[in-house]
């Protein structure tokens, strides 16, 4: 199901005014990537980037090409672990958070 422009605008508006929502978006993106759902993880990461820092400033801070950044996070994109690490480093700095992974026992 394709997301409508109204939905994306709503996500952007809420992310701009609600830091908890922004952090939840970023956390969800990473959780999806770690759990193996790269398609969803990349889509949520794109929504987060569009709603916050933007692709051009992110690419500048990474020393990357903005078109390459768009491609790697696109539906058929295949970012390397190094590129994901660089993206997440900049986004965490921008958000003022440090993400970590915790394990828990599965019942």
Task: Give an overview in words.
The protein starts with a helix and ends in a 12-residue tail after the last helix. α1 (5-17) packs across α2 (19-35), α1 packs across α3 (38-51) and α2 runs antiparallel to α3. The protein contains 6 helices and no strands. The model has no long low-confidence stretch (mean pLDDT 91). With 107 residues, the chain is an all-alpha fold. It has helices at 5-17, 19-35, 38-51, 55-62, 66-72, 81-95. It has one domain. The longest helix is centred in the N-terminal third of the chain and has 17 residues, at 19-35.
Taken together, the total number of domains comes to 1
Overall form: globular
- Which value, in Å, is the CA radius of gyration? 14 Å
Terminus-to-terminus distance: 33 Å
Say how many strands there are: 0
Please tell me the overall pLDDT: 91
Uncertain ranges: none
> Beta-strand percentage?
under 5%
The biggest sheet, with number of strands, parallel, antiparallel or mixed sense and barrel status, is: none
Structural class: mainly alpha
Instruction: Give the helix proportion (percent range).
Output: 55-70%
Order of helices and strands: HHHHHH
């Amino acid at each position: 199901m394709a997301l409508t422009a109204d939905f994306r605008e709503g996500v952007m508006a809420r992310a701009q005014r609600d830091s908890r929502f922004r952090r939840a978006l970023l956390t969800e993106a990473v959780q999806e990537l770690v759990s193996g759902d790269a398609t969803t993880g990349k889509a949520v990461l794109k929504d987060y980037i569009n709603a916050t820092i933007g692709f051009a400033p992110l690419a500048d801070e990474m020393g990357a090409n903005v078109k390459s950044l768009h491609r790697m996070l696109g539906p058929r994109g295949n970012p390397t672990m190094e590129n994901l690490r660089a993206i997440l480093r900049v986004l965490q700095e921008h958000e003022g958070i440090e993400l970590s992974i915790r394990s828990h026992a599965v019942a």
